[in-house]
Amino acid sequence: MERCDLVIVGGGPAGLAAAIAAREAGVADLLVLERDRELGGILNQCIHSGFGLHTFREELTGPEYARRYIRRAEELAVPCLMDTMVLEISPERVVTAVNAQRGLFQLQAGAVILAMGCRERPRGALNIPGFRPAGVYTAGAAQRLVNREGLMPGREVVILGSGDIGLIMARRMTLEGARVRVVAELMPYSGGLKRNIVQCLDDFGIPLKLSHTVVDIQGRERLTGVTLARVDENRRPIPGTEEHYTCDTLLLSCGLIPENELSRGAGVALSPVTNGPVVDESLETSVPGIFACGNVLHVHDLVDFVSQEAAQAGRRAARYLAGGGERGEAVRLTAGRGVRYTVPAQADPLRMEEELTVRFRVDNEYRGAAVVVSAGEEVLQRRKKRILAPGEMEEVRLSRKDLLERPAVREITISLEVAP
Amino acid sequence: MVMYDVVVIGAGVTGAAVARELAKYEARVCVLERCEDVCCGTSKANSAIVHAGYDAQPGTLMARLDVEGSYRIPQLARDLDFPYRNNGSLVLCMHEEDLPLLQALYDRGRRNGVSALRMVTREEILRMEPHVREDVVAGMEAATGGIVCPFGMNIAFAENAAENGVEFRFDTAVTGFARTREGWTVHTDRGDVAARAVVNAAGVYTDVLHNLVSTRRLHITPRRGEYYLLDKTTGGYARHTLFQLPGKYGKGVLVAPTVHGNTIVGPTAIDIDDREGVNTTAEGLEQVMRKAANIVKDAPLRQVITSFAGLRAHEDGHEFVIGEAEGAPGFFDCAGIESPGLSASPAIGRMAAELVRDKLLLRRKAHYKATRRGIVNPAALPFEERRALIGENPAYGRIICRCEGISEGEILDAIHRPLGARSLDGVKRRVRAGMGRCQGGFCAPRVMEILARELDLPMEEITKSGGGSRLIVGENKDGFGEEESDGTV
């Protein structure tokens, strides 16, 4: 069987940044496998600006952001196969893939980086009752049609879910001549970034209805309307609050799900909270030599952080291929009060870089709460935040020195101290 | 006007089965279908079960044709290359006091001629099916029970009929009939056709058509059933088809594997007025969840990938009505085809075709092709064979639907074979592109593009399922400026 030191599954922002970092760290024999026809992943359809503020200190569109990484990958002569679908990864890191040129092939990889991204939660998974007409799209599918094919999926639009793609599409459809009637959100808070609510809804006078959901979908062939209703604190529709909206399009922006079918097949342990692999400080999964980064690991808000995280995975995979280095005992990183999860879930102080970024999401909206990092009774960090929301990913940085100085500490907890 | 020997109304599994059986005779046969494709009504939304035949009352057509159909389907699946699996059925008795009902079911099954029925103990059930509730009392296993791809079977019957000379006209709705010296003139929204005999296999509309010609009234009630389909990660949750003891409104909510490795849970049974009422409801879906919990524990209902509803064509007498309509010579009904209609379809097809044969004195054809090759599924081939296939035709190496791993080659085959797909749902029913966990989120735009290219249609004319189900309304910005424009520059 053909061998390859490092196989990277996915050529979107995560896969590209991982490949570049691995190459820069000295991995000569690597290969990126991308299922779409070009590199860049979902960025190619994100033609709005706002990408790269952290990485490049300037505001780029999605394709521009992708372009910078693609160019760098080209400079480094990173080999990529397009239109190539990975069918299986074995726990021994045999990668089976298929494309039209090479046909069906297998590679024995020294290490694998998972960078497959995520998918949108479809209507079926949302249990919305009603008919199943044409005109019900996930926001991302509509975005692809409008931005890449120049095609309009509809003219009178209702959007369910205030995830970022839904908000962006509210503006986008408006700019293309559609009338966006309302954005409904099941939760009492938005799932998207504050800046998107301001720039995509408020600036266009599009109403956002929190604690609302779609309770009926009408239309036998093409969508003719939907019914919205207010929900109670248990997210159950309240009878009598139904409101009918005439529309020909319903866009769904109700959450993203990391695409871990390949990971599961490889025996990688997954977190029930993130739906992504459980990883350590090196972003290595439960299967040695298999790493994960980007939205397949946990869903991000900003691509800049995907790139950062993926570069770390690339460096760590390079180190793994070079022999791995010393190994100590890992410290558990746990989510305390108000925190849903942490990525990574554990850290070996001997293997950490000088600083380790730990990313997490909170479980509700909090004002004036403090993020606290503690080791048992001892508080290592406390940082007050004006506002914390589930739609915005948070991070803390753990210093390697702090952990090395406390060899007895086996667990670090990240939690919120909520203002009374 | 074109003159046929037989016009079959409806290209669901019943109409297609009748057409395939008629194709064995020297006869000019045409199938009229109001939708754009075969398998668009009851046949596409049901439990996908091959019932063993223990449930129907002894002596009924339902009992006889179900048993006959269930015995023929395994061989048909091989001849016509559609997915079928003999996983066996298990009827679960959850209450001590219902044991006599279980025994009665067993006795009824024996009287219906169902072989391989067996009473099983609680311990045996829990060993075979670890997700059944611990408080199960006893059960009955029917080894001949199976599961089938309902689209696959319907499409296979229709394609095989077409290969043997049967004509299909889609998007053609029957609007009325007139008696003629030779037989019947069938009025449609696309002109008239003439036939010596008519077979009415119009599903929930059979009574409407029947009542236009017959002196004896027929009454069909659309009985809605709602379902959940679960992700393939739940594959193996149930091995047998798990039934509760049947009650007044049918067989109750079942939990079963599908031939493609998903899990199906449902249906409800609600009588409605609307013959197009295939909408799901909050109450219905809730009922499915609640009733599934009567027989299984920890049902993985968080893994739902879609829910849907189908309509059973329930006849007042709860019996298949197959035969010449009173006062309408040469007009044959296949009415009241509700569960176990899918299982019985091969037998219904044969019975109806033989009635027509005897009426028109049709002669057996000398050359009849009894087999059909389905669409190649590369994922099911051994590594080297799949490799060779892609070597010959690289389109099989281009994956379009990631969730189900469907290649462009399969989609092209679905479009270009006899009675090929012309819509997203048509492609989906033939090769499962868009049937997976993302429900077409990623592949729909690409399948639309392939359809547009292969059928030489603009994207605006590609539909989800024919008719007015257009997916695209125009190009970017073309909705602007219409009201302001007065033609001057």
Spell out the blueprint of helices and strands.
The complex is a heterodimer of chains A (420) and B (489).
Chain A lengths: L1 E8 L3 H12 L5 E4 L15 E3 L8 E2 H14 L4 E2 L3 E5 L4 E6 L3 E12 L3 E3 L2 H4 L9 E3 H11 L1 E2 L3 E5 L3 H12 L3 E7 L8 H8 L6 E3 L1 E7 L6 E6 L12 E4 L2 E4 L3 E3 L2 H5 L24 E3 L10 H19 L9 E5 L3 E5 L2 E2 L7 E8 L3 E2 L2 E6 L2 E7 L2 E2 L5 E6 H5 L6 E7 L3
Helix pairs in contact in A: 1-2, 1-8, 4-5, 5-6
Chain B lengths: L2 E7 L3 H10 L6 E4 L16 E2 L10 H20 L3 E2 L3 E5 L5 H13 L5 E5 H7 L9 E5 L3 E3 L1 H14 L3 E3 L4 E6 L4 E5 L2 E10 L5 H8 L6 E11 L10 E4 L9 E4 L5 E4 L3 E2 L10 H11 L11 E12 L5 E4 L6 E5 L5 H20 L22 H10 L6 E3 L4 E2 H9 L7 H8 L12 H12 L18 E2 L14
Parallel strand pairs in B: 1-2, 1-12, 2-9, 5-14, 12-20
Antiparallel strand pairs in B: 3-8, 4-8, 5-7, 6-7, 10-11, 11-12, 13-16, 13-17, 13-18, 15-16, 19-20, 21-22
Structural summary, described in words:
- The complex is a heterodimer of chains A (420) and B (489).
- Chain A is an alpha/beta fold.
- In chain A, 21% of the residues lie in helices and 34% in strands.
- Chain A contains 9 helices and 30 strands.
- In chain A, α6 (194-201) links the parallel β13 and β14.
- In chain A, α1 (13-24) packs across α8, α4 (139-149) packs across α5 and α5 packs parallel to α6.
- Chain A is globular and about 65 Å long.
- Chain B is α+β, with helices and mostly antiparallel strands and 489 residues long.
- In chain B, strands 1, 2, 9, 10, 11, 12, 19 and 20 form an 8-stranded mixed β-sheet that branches. In chain B, strands 13, 15, 16, 17 and 18 form a 5-stranded antiparallel β-sheet that branches. A 4-stranded mixed β-sheet of chain B has the order 6-7-5-14.
- The longest helix of chain B has 20 residues, at 61-80.
- At the A-B interface, α3, α4, β11 and β15 of A face α7, β18, α9, α12 and β23 of B.
